[in-house]
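Hey, resending since the last one bounced:
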Amino acid sequence: MQFQQLVYFVAVAETLHFTQAAERVHVSQPSLSQQIRALEKELGAELFSRARGNVALTDAGETLLPLARRILADADTARHEVQELAQLRRGRIRLGATPSVCTGLLPDVLRAFHDLHPGIELLIEESGSHDLVRDLARGALDLALVVLPLPTPAPALTTVELLQEDLVVVSSAAAPAPRRPVRIADLEGEPLVMFRHGYDLRDLTVAACRAEGFEPAFTVEGGEMDAVLGFVRAGLGLAVVPRMVAARAGRDLRVTALARPGLRRTIALAHRSDVAPPRAARELQRMLLRTRSPAPDA
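The structure tokens again:
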């Protein structure tokens, strides 16, 4: 049974006239009649009675008609669904990002994307780069914003660098101002509010302190980004955070630059190398790539 045969069958059933049906579906009457006969042969039953030039549905035709209409309706729905997706009217994007990127980079980009494509559902997964790489590899995400270098080699992923971002020190506006700019060595003995294990920022900060020959002292540790900023506001200590996050943190936090060479992190956009992202994800990918900036001077 061919799809086009059902189209011809429904046209004849609705007009009860072979010539008019052929005109409706833009095919010659002999071709239409031939396809109807082929359909009847395949089904093993006549669909129309043709007595004395009058066309009427047989019992078999009456049985087939609602089924054929449903098949054609489902096909039409499928066509519209795919067209809407292709035209970015509908769809879903599964985007992973580190929590600091969600706080700093993503809000403006996602707002602009949603304004252009309000029918696209955005599913955001916040996690560390290690977990995001794993989720990409198993197909649970379409795209991910990760911190380079990756915690483990990932040859099955394609990464494109988006930007390099300075890290800064934040402290409570009510606390005494730290030295400007702050050297990493100045953090020795200072109370630090530290992120939970698995945060790229934790690993970067601890590694920088150890490179200066000391272990950082934590007053509070284990928080997510919002919690860390809240603890700093409460005067529990200092924290090292990305500049984009600090810019959104509010006036109750003081932002102090790190002395050169300071600390930087590299944000990259990653996806699986063996599978092209869905159409909607590719459009978001293009918008994110437009945020790319040259590396700052050392």
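The chain has a mean pLDDT of 90.

Sorry for the duplicate.
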